[in-house]
Amino acid sequence: MAPDGPEPELVARARTGDRGAFAALYHEHYRLVYSFLLVRTRNRHLAEDLTQEAFTRALRRIDAFTWQGTAFAAWLTTIAKNLYLDELAHGRTRLETPVAEFDDPPESWRDTEALALRELEAVEAHETVRTALHTLNAHQRHCVELRFLDELTAQETALAMGRSVGAVKTLTYRALRKLRRPTGAVSA
Question: What is the pLDDT of residues 87-102, one digit of tens each?
Answer without folding.
Answer: 887 765 555 555 555 4
